[in-house]
Amino acid sequence: MDTFFISHGSPTLSIDDSLPARHFLKSFQEKIFPERPKSILIISGHWETAEPTVNIVKVNDTIYDFYGFPKPMYQLKYPAPGAPELANRVKELLKNSGFERVNSDKSRGLDHGAWVPLMLMYPEADIPVCQLSVQMEGNGAHHYNMGKALAPLRDEGVLIIGSGSATHNLRSINPNGPRHVPWAREFDSWLKDSLLNGRHDDIKEYEKVAPYAKMAHPSPDHFYPLHVALGAAGETAKAELIHRSWSFGTMSYASYRFSTSTSTSA
């Protein structure tokens, strides 16, 4: 299995047909990845915990962790089955790799960083899904190492998806501004160049080397899922830009596929 980083951007991705990213995700099975996974592990920037945590549930509830949006968005459901076996396997792999504390949450469903893209990618909601949290006290290397620990899942039929945003500065969005502002474009271009040229160390230390890193990500929550997906693909992973679009002048929907030299492209 290849791994993926998906920029989910605004929650309106769930209903707004004017967003190119919505159409990209709806075509995911047909044009990007026709292979059906046994289960899905998704890492969302909207679940922050002190230690790595997985949800262990029979059926995933749909969490509406956004406010002031159109009413139809709160009526959407994504009742994908849970993946308890996968959750326990994630815990096992992380602990065996030196992560001393890995917790379980037996009531949490899927936040919008998980169910919104999955609703578009796998609308049947019939593939078991487990969600893994991010740690704000960690750094890029911490999350990259989480991904490395989870790499065996790829040979077990598990699709690993990091869900965040290539750029994520909500205070700077401007619906009436230019297509993309210079600082957002520069960070987005740096990210593409770094990934396509395999500069994983730069990605892990993006705060030090990326242009406008703090502007692009005032908080790293939406960037850490990329580190997990990249780490899971391995140090020799080949990155492919599979989608790029913009909204509000500063929000990049750039999404990537990571394959290893032993993978067969779908």
From TrEMBL:
**Which keywords does this chain's UniProt record carry?**
Dioxygenase, Metal-binding, Oxidoreductase, Zinc
Q: Which cofactor does it need?
A: Zn(2+)
**Pfam families from the UniProt entry:** LigB
Q: Which GO terms describe its molecular function?
A: ferrous iron binding; oxidoreductase activity, acting on single donors with incorporation of molecular oxygen, incorporation of two atoms of oxygen; zinc ion binding
Domain (Extradiol ring-cleavage dioxygenase class III enzyme subunit B) ranges:
3-258
Q: Which InterPro entries match?
A: Extradiol_dOase_DODA (IPR014436), Xdiol_dOase_suB (IPR004183)
Q: Which domain of life is it from?
A: Eukaryota
* PANTHER family linked: 4,5-DOPA DIOXYGENASE EXTRADIOL-LIKE PROTEIN (PTHR30096)
Query: Which family is this protein grouped under?
Result: Belongs to the DODA-type extradiol aromatic ring-opening dioxygenase family.
- Recorded protein name is Extradiol ring-cleavage dioxygenase class III enzyme subunit B domain-containing protein
